Sequence to fold (158 residues):
Amino acid sequence: MRPAITAVVLALPIVLATLLLGWIPIAERVDPDTDERRPLNIAEAAGEGNAAEVVRRLRLGEDPHRVYPVRPHIIQPPVTMTTAVEAAVWAKKVELMDLLDREGVILGGRTREDLVCLAGDIGAADVAAYLAKGRMPACEPEAALDRIAARSANDDQP
Fold:
């Protein structure tokens, strides 16, 4: 009788692990919210602060300067059209901005200044300081935020 109990005790973790591994793909297909949690493009990934997904999408060739539709919950409801670099400012993560900078995504000049102003408009002081690199541009309050909100208002996409 003892060898049978030992065999069951030894086999039980393997059987449970196999069942669990088999259940994961089924649960992902059954869960209707799974797709809603995945970023649909590089701008959504950046807005969520998901650096790994941003890099993956960069490697796949998604343009971080193209304007993409983003779902309202990613950034904030009035903003539904943005670039990945703008969305990354909303993530308020200096590490993400540094990653994009090292990837050569954050261009100098006017693009960087616009991002500094946007960071100031949304209260991301650390991101603004990182992007400014000691040269804070003269920003008209709320102008960068208004420009992006106007772009979103002029587009029907979600």
Remarks:
- The chain has a mean pLDDT of 88.
- Residues 7 and 65 are 60 Å apart (CA to CA).
